[in-house]
Amino acid sequence: MRHNGRMSLGRTFDTTARFRLCFVCTGNICRSPMAEAVFLDLVRRSGREGAIAVTSAATGDWHVGESADRRTVDALARRGLDGAAHRAKQFDADWFDDLDLVIVFDRSQERTLKSWATTEQDRSKVQLLLDFDPESAASEVPDPYYSDAALFDTVLGMIERACTALYRQIEPGIRQGAS
């Protein structure tokens, strides 16, 4: 989805930022909004708002336009993060051109996004979030949708650790002005 040659994601997304990433889960109402909020907080706290652009999306269209799941919003609020303004959207393969990294939460999403990519370069942008966390014993972040609030908190903890590790990996390049 494009508007005036720039990515249109329903929210302002700075395609001129030095580094641009999108978190993608199945419905864009649980895991990816959590990761977006966590990563945006890391970016804000480091003062790199103009250098790093962050958004999230879904592989499916079931929840497009909906708010994040109430349990997502509540889990984020318990950590001092705000997910109330989130509205779900579906990933568009045209976005690959404007993104440096597309982060997914499980192998199914990884397969889907890689199948949508038309070049090897775009396929290489698709990475599993937990691959960035060297201390994680798991390879996938479980989908908490069909579970209780406790799993949302557990999933958020996994996302926080992995996002912090991911941020540590990209931040030196941003600090040095590399893209």
CATH-derived architecture: 3-Layer(aba) Sandwich
- Rg, nearest Å: 15 Å
Distance between the termini: 23 Å
Q: Give the count of helical stretches.
A: 5
As a percent range, the share of helical residues equals 25-40%
Query: Domains counted in the coordinates: how many?
Result: 1
Q: Indicate the CATH class.
A: Alpha Beta
Shape verdict: globular
The CATH homology group name? Response regulator
- Calculate the mean pLDDT score and round it: 91
Structure description:
The protein has 179 residues and is α/β, with parallel strands linked by helices. The protein is built from five helices and six strands; from the N terminus they run βββαβαβααβα. It has one domain: Rossmann fold (3-Layer(aba) Sandwich), CATH 3.40.50.2300. Helix 1 crosses helix 5.
How do the strands and helices of this protein lay out in sequence?
Elements lengths: L1 E2 L2 E2 L11 E7 L5 H16 L5 E7 L11 H9 L22 E4 L2 H10 L3 H5 L1 E3 L20 H27 L4
Parallel strand pairs: 3-4, 3-5, 5-6
Antiparallel strand pairs: 1-2
Q: Brief description of this entry?
A:
Keywords: Hydrolase, Protein phosphatase. With 179 residues, this protein is an alpha/beta fold.
